[in-house]
What does this fold into?
Amino acid sequence: MLLNEMIIDENNVGFIPSLGISFEVNETAKRIIELIKEGKSKEEIVEIISNEFDVGWREAYVDVEDFFIKLKVYGLIQ
Amino acid sequence: MSKKYEKPVIIKVDFTMASKYGSPLKTQKIRSEIDEVNVRDLVKEYGSPLFVFSERIIENKYHEFKEAFTSRYPDTEFWWSYKTNYLDAICKIYHKLGSKAEVVSEFEYEKARSLGIEGKDIIFNGPYKPKEALKKAVMEGAKIHIDHWYEINDLEEIAEELGKEIPVAIRCNMNTGVYPQWSRFGFNIDNGEAYDAVKRIYEGKKLFLTGLHSHIGTFMLSAAAYGAETKKLIELKNKIEEDFGYEIEYIDVGGGFASKNRLKGVYQSPEVIVPSADEYAEAITNAIFENNKGKLPKLYLETGRALIDEAGFLLTSVFASKRLPDGKKSYIVDAGVNLLYTAFWYNFDIALDKRYEGLNEPSQINGPLCMNIDVIAENIMLPSLNRGSVLSIWPVGAYNVTQSMQFIRYRPRIVLIDKNGNTHLIKEADDLDYVREKEILPDYLK
It folds into this structure.
């Protein structure tokens, strides 16, 4: 999984060394990527995000689902 | 304490997207107010979607065109093109400003009359004028612009029935150097047909010619084309005045002037390619002065789009979003192509109601219709929007209200903001009773 390679700096730029490509992410995306790297499931991530941020579980579910599709489009996860 | 939430966004960095104008990932176009009225307040009070018209913009645009033409050619008259937008309130504003009426059907004719416009102040254009409607317009003194040979015959019969000679104008078409050439309305000047039509009218002795009219196209980006049109109309005027002794009171160069909308497939911005009112006026009036022989005719304009398009906004709210398989974000909003006929050829200026946190990403805006063609914007960079975010779509003042369809969803309310910033409901939304008003259910199906 390419996402495991991603190094995110203090400016929220994520770099994939083996491909030499970069991504811009925001705080929420950065946190989700951390959780994916920790091996958390999608459902666990939704739970954590809705606890850590001022967002309801339902909205968080939609957004995490959406984010996973985007990661797949970029080939960062399978 | 919970941290402030922002929808998660990841965007691949593409250095080719950066330019001297900044990053498209961070640039947001915001229009939180129309004439100092907050767009969210408008939606809250009148519902969404909502058409909004600005009287201030209407007046400013009208005065811009009037000044451009009358400063060069004082004997210029404006005839409001009803088909562009025939809401009563809109027509009334133009009539109060001094515009007369240009109509292309008996329905529009009746609408103008019901608004207090006298027959003599109505131009009756169009290829389809049922004889009864034509007769009524003749009796009320409307200016009839003949489109085809059959109409000459109809008018001669009406002249016999009424026992009087009828003043008429003919509609002309011609090559003005632009593509596509509009050739299906009126009589062609280049092949002599227009001259032959005048000869036929002269020999018929029931009608007499007072005007020449042409409408060379729509969204014309070339002022020079109007110069070419005017030159040919004036040359025809000179010739028929000499050959038949007519005195042509007016030439009508039609409309078709472009607004600051952005045509699909056109790279440059409207500010760069759309001629100004002054450029159109310069081309037309110069051609009159350079070519006219004898008495100068009145100049009539049937400008519609260029006057009203930029005064119209459509407010629409985000209902949902989804991620398409190609990674693009699709926003489902409550206004679709049923309300925006012009979406098929314009890339509208679409603005946000406020600044949103986060990065822009490639998005598309889809309407609420269960139709794949319901696309308002196919490629637009937008930040993460929420359910209820309000977008304003502009310019939509021309042709959208008159061509909006009662299809799948009810048509929305329409609001006018007057010059003092007061809002007025000028059209109520459709409802089930309205939609079914003219339906008849046969007894055996009840």
Remarks:
- The mean pLDDT of chain B is 95.
- Chain B is about 30% helix and 25% strand.
